[in-house]
Amino acid sequence: MSSSTVALCTAATIVIVFLSLSRPSAARDSLLRGASIAVEDHATDLLLSPDGTFAAGFYAVSPTVFTFSVWFARAADRAVVWTATPRLLNSGNLAVEDAVGNVLWQSFDHPTDTLLPMQRLAAGKAMVSSDKLLAGGGFYSFRFNDYSIISLVYDNHEISSVYWPNPFYSYWQNNRNIYYNSTRRQAFIDESGHFLASDNATFDAADHGENVRRRLKLDTDGNLRLYSLELDDVTTSTWTWSVTWMAFANPAGVRLRADTTDWSRGCRPTFTFNSTDRIMKLLPLPHTDFWGFDINKGALLSLRECAARCKSEPSCVAFEYKVGIGECYPKSLMFNGRTFPGLLGTAYVKVPADLDVSNLHVHQWQKNGLAIEEDIVRCGATIDSPEFLLNVSGVSSSSSSNSIWFYFYGFLSAFFVIEVIVIAFGCWFFSSKGVFRPSKIWALDEGYRMVTNHFRAYSYSELQRGTRKFRSEIGRGKHRILVYEYIENGSLAQVLFDRRDYSKFLGWKQRFNIALGVAKGLAYLHNECLEWIIHCDMKPENILLDEDMEPKITDFGLSKLLNRDGYGSQMSRIRGTRGYLAPEWVSSLPITDKVDVYSYGVVLLELVKGRRISD
């Protein structure tokens, strides 16, 4: 072989080796989500700039030491131009610094679905919900909108809509300010649990204070929640986060899409409906509103005319009608809907005439806590059924001594026979345990619910009026049933101490209102009743919260009527619950209404602390 041939082969070999080192076969200029660069393959697993000038990856300082660096790929000495020196700070921020400590890159500038204390969310940045099926994240984001308002936004690349703050209100009704200077748009949460944004958006954690780990997360269901973890729990093997604030108290309020593999995307119709099909019917949704997508906005029509317009319009899928005002809002899309007792309008949804709605469930509105599903048909007779309404004159029909009837206060002024009630409402949908006896909750009509407590005649309380509304008594022989109003959100104890259920939580304003309401209730019992009353067992279990989180004092099983002639009372035995007992009980002192005040003080401490004093 000639010397020229050997030289040519040697040169070719050098070129091949050089090319293999400078441009690996798997060269790429970016990393897709889920991809990685392995240090084991540091020679070939690289990022390469499109023109092949720069490479990034694990740079071998020695056979056992590597740094993540950027270097000149085509230079013989592979000169390094940048080396990552990341530091994980106590704040949770992963920062890359240069030799003198200047931050070159930090994870706080690139939020995902979580914001940590003192991490700032600036203009152009967004928290995006995670989605296991979408590489780029979910459909929900928390960011500044075009009007510089920090907002929760739904965006599925076809529809984009703000759903928090309330899109039905203007920015000043939502207590927001508008800043057009992008440099001033920022939001953050501090270590005490206080959130503040440049548009005046603000909220506080229910456990506002120091020494608590916190994270603000945009969950997969589109709800923004603030989670807290007390430092006392860090030493345990498992950490349990508790929700101390959320944008939507009812998680079902953010349901927009349907997916059989991911229920967090909500619901969709169970039917395929041809909008040109004239064989249809309208399904009413009282006190319901859907924001936007109006075909003809606010035309003044009768209900019949509004329905006819929607039926004749192929693009109309529903319409809203405000009774008494006459405003008609045909809708081309049902989006960002809400049900609220104060809403005047009713939404009417177009459905096929042959669609069976006998098993449909309607979510009853609750301001705080999860909605309770009620079967609206399975109860048998409706309120207008002739077999249900026996007498509407307000006068009891004649009956024998064994007749069983009762009167619903403010409920159609009608008398009913108990057997008919049981038949008509044999669909009681929820059972619970009261403090002393079993209870049943009855769904009597749309949104009208009651609780019945069964006991024997001799235990019937002398109390005829309390802070929890008493509806009626049903009796047969020695058996009695008391009928009370249904209190939707359960007891204060459940809300405060049950960490497994974060659907109900209490902000500071709600806690103050509860404390004030209970104080007023006790003042009424002690000073304003026809018979002054000592409750004797004031504790969170005996404070119920209605749909507006207003407190109701209940369960007077240990109550004692105060003697108006003598302020103090002597009792033969201690009454109440350990941990809430006043010193008078163990000191043989006269029992006055101050024992309730002492117990109320313990409840007040627990209301502020969020845990039992005994813990």
From TrEMBL:
Membrane-traversing stretches: 404-430
Swiss-Prot/TrEMBL catalytic activity: L-seryl-[protein] + ATP = O-phospho-L-seryl-[protein] + ADP + H(+); L-threonyl-[protein] + ATP = O-phospho-L-threonyl-[protein] + ADP + H(+)
Alphabetical list of Pfam families matching this protein: B_lectin, PAN_1, Pkinase
GO biological process entries: response to other organism
An example Gene Ontology molecular-function term: protein serine/threonine kinase activity
Keywords: Membrane, Receptor, Signal, Transmembrane, Transmembrane helix
Membrane topology: Single-pass type I membrane protein
The UniProt record lists the keyword Oxidoreductase: no
Subcellular location: Membrane
Name used for this protein in its record: non-specific serine/threonine protein kinase
InterPro entries assigned to the protein according to its UniProt record, in alphabetical order: Bulb-type_lectin_dom, Bulb-type_lectin_dom_sf, Kinase-like_dom_sf, Pan_app, Prot_kinase_dom, Ser/Thr_kinase_AS
Residues covered by the Protein kinase domain: 390-615
Key word Cell wall biogenesis/degradation present: no
GO cellular component: membrane
Domain Bulb-type lectin: 22-141
Signal peptide range in chain numbering: 1-27
